[in-house]
Design goal:
By secondary structure, this protein is of the alpha/beta class. The protein is built from 28 helices and twelve strands.
């Protein structure tokens, strides 16, 4: 049978690429909902490993593919959706507990099996694109590859507002079937029957799966699973957005009482719980307007700022992360006149105003309550208002704080710059209140202490010790930061509040050693001692000597949740499974996965040379160096840009989709026009210099530009982001296809091999970019990218001009 026409191939590449990237992104959402968010980067890792493996395999069987091109191409098209289906189903049924991975071999095997199933799906998709590159125009094929990928990224965001991730995944798999069906019905009856049968089987499988009520079930280790085990538990509401799957659970006995006094005289009512991706329960408290019904709130440790503030100064409060409205109720109970609340997920605001408005006392629509769909930092940058109190209370779940579950995630809520923004928007006597979980060993609250002290120091406050108050309950720690020195009256109110509720004092100006660790005793008063040391002149020595990383996070290195240091390994060895949370497994998994990725990459890069008997010539060494450099350069720009834009666009989901889609589409356009720009011998060199120039300008001017436009609407910021990355994406789309074009003319074997090298080093670069960003910050990673493109440009000029003879 003759080979498919270029139109069919371009069509197939577009929809296959669409399916690959949309599958990859939606799987990160499924993983965040059903399993654990911080392992999502490993999905990207497996995708790119699949790309690398496809190049290695194609280079080995290239002659067979050329002899029976139509058969191989159709086989790839038909197997791709089959394994997408298989990988999706098995991964949703394969349950593992990431908390146990540091001591359970079985859990490690489950994790690798989990990701191998997805990796093989990506291998098949990449194989289709690689086969297209062998026979058809490189620049045109690469254009449709990138265009389809960009379209897939944007489509997932749009679909996420309407459907559950499982339903979106089903749609993606059906889209992946389209190229096989089109090619089959334009080829032969045999191909058409095969494609039709496979499609019917896949439809039947999904029909059966969705008929089982527990198919969309989250991990038993997530918070919502515990809530659903309560009597009469049921999910009474479910909504979707690119940010999270939002579910509301009601059950007998469902309550959350973070920081409640052990001697509280008031009964906590049965509540409903809002769960975000199955974790981080935010309570919806029944309220009919009678303040006596919510007086239990006065016995929560996070109520301290509402208690100590002078009644005449309770004018305006800002609540960051309003959720189910507990902090709004605290503001109502303490009689604040104006309540501003921020919530990033519009679905939460909708359900609190509508479905659960009567149940919650319509607190979201109160006369003195203003709710905004805003990210805290962008709101703070934009608003001219000053506040008497700014509160961040219990933003994340206990297991998140205790286990390092977000170790690989960026958070711009907790950086030196954010603290300065918050304090800068306080009235002269205003308070910033931060409440977090108490975890063992102590680390995140210590990082908060360090961050606040450094922020106040940078603001020119000399007597920092006179601006802080901290108390501790069994579960929580609340830190108050006062813009003005703490008054004696506020200290008296704090000591009375703590004594009456059996909360432990951690710090206030002038506190003595015998006033701490009295009620809920720790082996040592670690929080008090740490805060004293952080306030002392030898704070740097304390930070360096501490077993966990408690360095202050910054906007350039916003990894607040990462506490990993080599000393953590001692805790793992000492405690093992008896004290799982100390393992900081999020960061450990990144390091653990890096070694096998390096080994696999080396094997797959060398494997084709050994099998085909290719000699390791100067040509091969140059190809290896060039394609590895541009892979590292591309992702060392893409990854920091995604991370930097989280603050600007307000959420990782928006940043991931906009940056990936934008860079891919503009790179595709660059690929399409790559043969028309610059003299051929200097084309890659000049495009590399353009990338270096634009990236250098970003390093200098990007932060001020983002700061200037941060108050714009989300739609305006998306357009602005796309305009900013357009020139960079355009030039980044030139080096890869230009070099492949050269190889197609001069060394056809090396085209597929180079595709594989680029894929493997893309994997390595993503892992290394994350590690280096955590250690050194985003700017350092982008400077390495500049170096890589500079070296690749010079190298390309040499090997293209001299033909590697």
């Amino acid at each position: 049978m003759k080979s498919p026409g270029s139109g069919i191939v371009s069509f197939s590449v577009f929809f296959t690429s669409f399916s690959i990237l949309s599958y990859q992104i939606i799987f990160t959402r499924i993983f965040a909902w059903a399993q654990w968010h911080n392992l999502s980067p490993l999905i990207i890792t497996m995708a790119l490993l699949g790309f690398g493996a496809s190049g290695s395999v194609t280079s080995v069987i290239q002659k067979k593919i050329e002899n029976r091109y139509s058969l191989f191409f159709f086989t790839g098209l038909i197997l791709f959706p089959v394994f997408l289906t298989f990988g999706f189903i098995i991964s949703t049924r394969l349950v593992f507990n990431p908390y146990e991975m540091t001591f359970s071999v079985g859990q490690i095997i489950s994790m690798f099996l989990y990701f191998f199933l997805m990796g093989f799906s990506f291998f098949l998709g990449a194989l289709i694109v690689c086969m297209a590159l062998l026979k058809y125009s490189v620049s045109k094929t690469y254009f449709f590859n990138l265009l389809g990928s960009g379209a897939g990224a944007l489509a997932v965001v749009a679909a996420s507002f309407l459907w559950h991730p499982f339903h979106i995944m089903t749609g993606i798999i059906f889209i992946a079937m389209v190229p096989a069906l089109v090619m089959a019905f334009k080829s032969s009856v045999k191909y058409a029957l095969t494609a039709g049968t496979v499609t019917a089987i896949i439809i039947g499988i999904f029909f059966m799966l969705f008929s089982f009520p527990d198919f969309k079930k989250v991990s038993q280790y997530k918070a919502i699973s515990g809530a659903l085990n309560l009597p009469d538990a049921q999910i009474v509401h479910e909504a979707y957005s690119p940010l999270a799957v939002v579910q509301v659970v009601q059950a007998k006995g469902l309550r959350t009482t973070a920081g409640l006094s052990l001697i509280s005289p008031f009964q906590v009512p049965v509540q409903k719980g809002i769960f975000f991706n199955g974790s981080s329960m935010s309570p919806i408290t029944p309220f009919k307007g009678n303040k006596n019904d919510i007086r239990y709130l006065q016995h929560l440790a996070p109520y301290l700022p509402f208690h100590v503030m002078d009644k005449t100064k309770r004018n305006r409060v800002l609540i960051i992360g309003s959720g189910g409205g507990e902090s709004i109720l605290k503001s109502i109970l303490s009689q604040f006149k104006h309540i501003d609340a921020l919530e990033v997920d519009p679905r939460v605001i909708s359900l609190m105003k509508n479905q659960f408005g009567p149940y919650s006392g319509h607190i979201y629509t109160g006369k003195n309550v203003t709710i905004q769909i805003r990210e805290a930092r962008s709101f703070i940058k934009q608003t001219p208002k000053k506040y008497d109190l700014i509160e961040l209370s219990m933003i994340d779940a206990y297991n998140t704080a205790a286990s390092g579950v977000y170790a690989l995630n960026e958070s711009y809520l907790y950086t030196i710059e954010s603290i300065k923004d918050y304090v800068g928007h306080l009235n002269d006597s205003g308070l910033l209140a931060i409440s977090r979980w108490v975890v063992t060993p102590a680390r995140d609250n210590l990082k908060i202490f360090n961050m606040v002290i450094e922020a106040l120091r940078q603001m020119g406050i000399d007597d920092i010790q006179n601006h802080l108050i901290a108390i501790r309950s069994l579960q929580t720690l609340t830190l108050l930061v006062s813009k003005s020195p703490i008054t004696g009256e506020m200290i008296d109110k704090t000591t009375t509040f703590a004594k009456e509720r059996l909360f432990d004092l951690v710090y206030y100006p002038g506190i003595s050693e015998n006033q701490v660790n009295r009620f809920i005793k720790l082996k040592t008063p670690v929080y008090h001692e740490a805060l004293q040391k952080l306030l002392s002149s030898d704070s740097k020595a304390f930070i360096e000597a501490y077993d966990f990383d408690i360095r202050a996070a910054t906007d350039n290195r916003p990894y607040f949740y990462n506490f990993f240091k080599p000393a953590v390994l001692r805790y793992i060895k000492t405690y093992g499974p008896s004290q799982i949370p100390v393992t900081e497994w999020g960061y450990l998994i990144l390091l653990i996965i890096l070694l096998p990725v390096l080994v696999l990459s080396f094997i797959f890069i060398v494997f084709p040379l050994l099998i085909t008997g290719q000699k390791v010539t100067r040509r091969k060494k140059t190809i290896f160096a060039y394609f590895s450099l541009i892979a590292v350069g591309y992702f060392f720009i893409e990854m920091p840009m995604i991370q930097k834009m989280i603050l600007f666009l307000g959420h990782p989901s928006y940043s991931l989709s906009v940056i990936i889609a934008g860079l891919l589409v503009f790179s595709g356009i660059g690929s399409l026009f790559s043969t028309r720009l610059f003299p051929e011998s200097k084309r890659i060199l000049y495009s590399s210099l353009s990338i270096i120039l634009v990236t250098g300008l970003y390093l200098i001017f990007l932060d001020p530009i983002l700061l200037f436009f941060i108050s714009f609407s989300l739609g305006q910021k998306v357009v602005l982001t796309l305009l900013m990355i357009a020139p960079l994406g355009f030039f980044m789309g030139i080096p890869f296809p230009c070099a492949l074009n050269f190889l197609k003319r001069e060394d056809e074997f090396s085209l597929a091999w180079a595709w594989g090298i680029n894929g493997f080093f893309s994997v390595i670069s993503i892992l290394l970019a994350t590690v280096l960003a955590i250690i050194f910050g985003f700017k350092a990673v982008m400077m390495i990218a500049i170096l890589c493109y500079g070296c690749a440009g010079v190298l390309s000029y040499q090997f293209i001009r001299k033909k590697l003879s």
